[in-house]
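**Fold in tokens:**
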Amino acid sequence: MTEYGDPKSQDTNAGAGMEHMLNINTIQQPADTPELNTQDNSLWKLIESHLEALVKEWEAAHPTQDWEEDFDEFKERARQTAFALTEDEVRLSMGHTRTILQRLRDAQGWYIRG
């Protein structure tokens, strides 16, 4: 199991105790390393692709208008998009996690180039 290394988001002592009790080994990730935060990164890419498709679809239907939305509208659209993902989409997206972690291990480092 990997854990994000941001000190502001550390697990509680109770969580760490439970990990130890259940014999769960964790790998502490350095802070600010999105290539290691593979689950969030792959899901966000999936959501982002859906968001971009919605905009393109709207623009095709309204060729003389410009797409506009404020930040609150964007957040709501992103939330709705995330909750509309199918289980198959999420499983496929998460399936890439193993490949990414394998590439990191093979590179013996924290960064993947290329």
Observations:
- Residues 68 and 74 are 10 Å apart (CA to CA).
- The chain has a mean pLDDT of 74.
